[in-house]
Structure formats: C-alpha cells, structure tokens
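Just scan this pair:

***
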Amino acid sequence: MGRSKSRLQRKREKESLKQAVKYLLLIFLVLYLMIKLGLPALIKMAGFFGDIRSSGESIEKQDELPPMIPRLLPLPEATPSAELNVAGYAEAGSTIQLYVRGISADETVADNDGNFEFKGIHLREGENEIYVVARDDGGNMSDESKTWTVTVDTSAPELRIDQPDKDDKFFDKDSPITVSGTTEENVNLTVNGRFVMVRNDGGWETKVDLSEGDNEIEVKAVDEAENERREAVTVNYTP
C-alpha cells in the first residue's frame, strides 16, 4: 500500500515538474518578446490573436484604393467634324466615364488590356473640353484625366490677294513680281505650292518668277481644323 502511494506521488511530482517547465518557458518567451518587440506591440499582438480566436471569422480587407488615373490618347486641337472618336487606357475592367464640356457624355468598360474607346462623340461648334474618370468594382473613383480642348471649326479661313490684280501685264525686268495679301493668323499658306510665312497680323508676301505668256498664281490657306480656301489670279508676262 505504501509502495503504491509512493509511485502515485512520484507521478504527480513529475507532472507538476513538467507543468512548471512549461510555465517557465512561457515566461521566458513573453520576456523575450517584450524585449524584442516592446510591451505595446505585444499587447496589440495578443489582442489581435484574441479577436481572431473569439470571432472565429476571417478578416477581410475592404478595397479602398482608387483605380489608376485613366489616360486619353492625343486629340486634335481643331477639327471640322462635329463627331470625334476618343480612346485611351486605364485599369483593366474599370468603368470609364466620359465628360464633354463638364457633362457626362458616355460610359464604357476598359478591356482586359486596359484599352477603351468612345466612338462618334458629338461636339459642338467652338471649344470642347474632354476628360475621363475611372470607377472600379468597389465604387472607388479615380482623379480626372488630363483635359483636352478640341475646337470644332467648319469655316474656311479668310484669304485675299492684294497684288497683283487679275490680268495685270508685266514686261522685261518686272519678273520676279511681288505677290501679297492677307489671311487669318495660324494658317498654313502656300503660293503655287511653295510655303509662305504668315505674319501675326495675317499679312503675307512673297516673290514669284514669271514665264512668258499667261501665269496663274494660286494661293491656298489651310487652318488648324484643315478647312481650306483657294484664291487665284492670272497675269501676263512679256520678256
């Protein structure tokens, strides 16, 4: 009987020793973490794992990041057409909202490569400010893209030949003659196919060599919207 109690006592002592060793190791681990991480971090970590254990639910991170700012491909400064295609690229799968003159004009979705396009967007005469905004599946909105201003201009530029007059006659050493006139600022001007600089006030002037007989002098002005106007005079030259 005494032997049985002695074995039981020894067994309990071993279990107590094991338990004490476990507690001792746990104390050393806590002290190590306190030194390594600091007490505030340790408390936060304990709270974090405690929340997970108590809730038994996985932590889901909500998407609050806005999509990348979309970019538009370059648009013309001016056009004679009242309709325009607008294209660009953005975050794949995001919804692209198009604004023209500050008003929402259309909506589309960027493809898997991030490309998007709006076709046949109606523009009004004059200036049209165009930009886009992207929206992801979480409802987050990007900042506005770069704004492009496109001017719709359907009128041909003004053009006048001041000299020479129609049917003027020239002789001997008159050639080359001076050809001059006026047009609009910022147009491309050619005289008989040769480029001529236009001054800030719209005036222009150049020299033209004449050949014997009738000489047609053709002047063409093309504005930024590619509208063009042509004027011509015919003069006669006798060497």
The CA atoms of residues 160 and 182 lie 5 Å apart. Confidence is low (pLDDT under 50) at residues 1-5.
